[in-house]
Amino acid sequence: MTHSDQPVGAEPRQGLGESPLLPLSPRLAPCLALHKAASWLVVVLAVAWMPLGDAPLLAWRAWLVAGVAGCGALGVGLAWCEARRRAYTLREHDIVQRRGLLVQRLQALPLVRLQHIETRSNPLERCFGLVRLACFTAGGRGADLLIEGLPAAQAELLKQQLLDRLASASRESST
Amino acid sequence: MSDPLAEWQRLSPWAMVSLLLTQAAAQGRQHLPLLLGAGAGLTLLDAIGWRELLLAGGGALCLALLLAWRYYRRFRFRLEDDVLVIHSGLFEQREYKLAAHHVQQIATRQPLHMRPFGVVEWQVVPLAGDASRITLPGIRQAIAEALSERLSPFALTPQAAAPAHYVLTARGLLLHGLTSRSVVVAAAMLSPLIRPLERWLHDIAPSLAWRDWLPTAPLLLAALAILAVLAVVLLLSVIAAVWRFFGYRLVEHGGRQIQTSGLLQRQRQSLTLSRLQVVECVETGPGRLLGCGYLVCHQFGGAGDEGRRFLVPGITGGEQRRLLAALWPGLSWPAELIRVSRHYRRVLLLRGGLLGGLLLAGSGALLDATLPDWQWLLLAAAVVALVVLGAWHRWHCQGWARSGDYLWVRHGLFGLRTHVFALHKAIAVDVRQSWFQRRRGLATLHLHLAHGRVALPFIEHATALALADELLVACASGSVVELPD
Q: For B480, which of A92, A105, A138 is closest by C-beta distance?
């Protein structure tokens, strides 16, 4: 894993939009697609088994189910494409993540704001060997930056790097 | 001479009596339906008479006194160097430790019933935010002042000698009451009374000779009723403002702003300027008409309850500039705020148009046969006019400016909210681009600040990235944990 770790003032600081980003694991796309498919499956089943009685909608149930399933398929496809676009980088003073497909987001969290870091994984992510890294700040009520789809080893390495930066930042501020 | 604060201190016994009564009242209020239900059930049981009731009441009182005694015995605090240590808990022992350099804000409250005994409620907010607030429910004033002095020098020392740099005038207090959000709170408080009042009027009206002196025109009657309700709401709002902000003084002392206010319940709050994160200048719609606004000073993990926030109320005559300069030294007022792209107005028009269309469609489904065509046309024209005016006004109010090391972001529709903060106070930034924005080279900059998220919509994409870069560079030299000098 390579990060732009130049010392302060060694090179002109790269702009947020110019920083080269690292792609996340290619296993994130199927993982997110499966997750999305499972969510939509619940909706499709609910529509398929919804008691309609003698309502006129009964004749249209098959079309309704097909429509919802179509929306689900579109959602799954979008989730797949979105996961393939996700990327992140750890820069000298901040951590940056790119996500989103229709609405694209470029998030940046300065490292001096970090209070603590967590790694999380649900059963589906564990099947794919993926881990989420949640970064918390003092002001936020939840995780301020959530990087999904990191391979476990890479997540551990990134977490360690962030912890080292936190320790050195706290040493600098106390001296 | 030994330091009295180094010894274990207890709460005042008067505070325990007050705590017992307020807790009983609070529990009674919270479980009112349960209590009423139990009372109604007891009246139906012949086996339970006054003797049994008195015995049960006496038992409950004894139990409450026993618990209060246990709470009193277990609650103690002391200072170990510059660390406040508190032991408390009824059934499980808890120990809190708070170092002086983690103190963000100290406040004392003195309700009327505590005044004769010289007892105050002392509160401290650590850097973790308002959710971690620690309260000593009743200690002697001298101990509270000594504690404040040790944990946060200059925090709450008597400021009789220090000249106040802002004093709320009677006009400012009245205008604040009329224009602040208390009006909405008062209206919300009164809303549950509407139905019972309506029923009462329905029952009582025929027996009264109201028809003799009330106007017969229904429109005039409705206008009078609305005026009466508005007058009651405004009166309640003014009373709330007087209750909270009577005698408001703001004093600057040792790098802190200290405010004192309150009619019956005196309240003091201190704000360390180095830990001030964002100042929000608020002008409500009526406030803009009457030329009155207020400032909200935000720190990390600020209170959701507006009653606990550090507010500078009733600012009139453009005093915001002077006060902002006192809160943010070196701040210069921008000559003009930069407008966001006109495309934002189009998007607002589109959103408003969709909402208006849905409303009209819904109304059409409900009232199709009842309204003639010309009335539908009139309604549609009114909705279109409202949407156009609203979109234009919202776009007009949205603006931003970079002035030195400070960023100003303003938004609003009828009222205006301007967030002012130093660049290095931002927590995180987020540049977002929708499909439409990508086509136009625009972006929305989301700024994560101590009090929440502020959006700067539809600015040039390059500007958004440049602003984000500047914020990140400024943050790199800052730190969340601001250590004492």
A: A138
Question: Tokens at residue A149, please?
Answer: 């789809």
A73 and A92 assigned to the same domain: no
Calculate what percentage of chain B has a pLDDT beyond 70: 90
Distance from C-alpha of B158 to C-alpha of B45, rounded to nearest angstrom? 59
**Which residues in A lie closer than 8 A to residue B458 (C-beta atoms)?**
none
Number of domains in chain A: 2
pLDDT at B101 over 90: no
Residue A91 lies in a domain: yes
Residue B161 has pLDDT above 70, yes or no: no
- Contact residues, chain A to chain B, C-beta under 8 Å: 13, 15-17, 92-94, 100, 102-110, 112-113, 115, 137-140, 144-145, 169-170, 173-174
Q: For chain B, give every domain's residue range.
A: 4-28+47-151, 341-397, 398-485
Which ipTM did the prediction report?
0.84
Q: Distance (Å) from the C-alpha of residue B427 to the closest C-alpha of chain A?
A: 6
One domain for residues A146 and A91: yes
> Per-residue pLDDT tens for B371-417?
777 888 888 899 999 999 999 999 999 999 998 889 999 999 988 99
Tell me the CA distances in angstroms from B199 to B219, B229, B322, one per residue in order.
21, 16, 52
Q: Which residue has the tokens 């990235």?
A: B465
Nearest CA in chain B to A144: B428
Q: Mutation target for A interface from B436, B467, B479, B483: give the one with most A CBs within 10 A.
A: B479
Which residues form the domain of A103? 87-174
CATH class of B4-28+47-151: mainly beta
Assess B126–A contact: CB distance below 8 Å, yes or no: no
Can you tell me the distance from the alpha carbon of B90 to that of B363, in angstroms, rounded to the nearest whole number? 58
Give the closest-approach CA distance of B276 to chain A in angstroms: 13
Residue of B413, B279, B294 whose CA lies nearest to B333: B279
Q: What are phi and psi of B291, to 5 degrees?
A: 70, 45
Asked if B476's CB is within 8 angstroms of A113's CB, the reply is no
DSSP state of B306: G
Do both A105 and A168 map to the same domain?
yes
Task: Classify domain B398-485 by CATH architecture.
Answer: Roll (2.30)
Do A44 and A121 lie in a common domain? no
B434 in contact with chain A, both atoms CB, cutoff 8 A: yes
Token pair of A24 as six digits: 């996340």
Does any domain span residue A20? no
Answer whether residue A119 shows pLDDT above 60: yes
The alpha-carbon gap from B454 to the nearest alpha carbon of chain A, in Å, equals 13
Binning pLDDT at 50, 70 and 90, where does residue A172 land?
Answer: low
The answer to whether the B4-28+47-151 and B398-485 domains have the same CATH topology is yes
Q: Which of A13, A169, A170 sits opposite B473 (nearest CB)?
A: A13
Instruction: Give CA–CA dist B472/B466, Å, rounded.
Output: 10
* Residue A147 sits in the same domain as residue A97: yes
**Of the candidates B150, B119, B126, the residue with the CA atom closest to the CA atom of residue B4:** B150
Q: Looking at the DSSP assignment, which residues form a beta bridge with residue B122?
A: B108, B136
Chain A positions in Cβ-Cβ contact with residue B453 (cut-off 8 Å): none
* Token representation of residue A148: 């999904």
Q: Same domain for A72 and A92?
A: no
Q: How confident is the model at residue B446 (pLDDT cuts 50, 70, 90)?
A: very high
Chain mean pLDDT for chain B: 83
A68 and A122, same domain (yes or no): no
* Of B275 and B75, the one with more pLDDT: B75
CB contact under 8 A, A108 and B428: yes
- Would you call B450 an interface residue with chain A, using a CB distance cutoff of 8 Å? yes
pLDDT digits (tens, 9 = 90+) for A15-37: 888 888 999 999 999 999 999 99
pLDDT the model gives residue B483: 38
Tell me if chain A has a CB within 8 Å of the CB of B2.
Answer: no
Instruction: For residue B76, give both structure tokens.
Output: 């103690």
State pLDDT tens for residues B173-207: 999 988 887 777 777 777 777 788 778 877 776 67
Chain A positions touching B480 (Cβ under 8 A) are 112-113, 115, 137-138
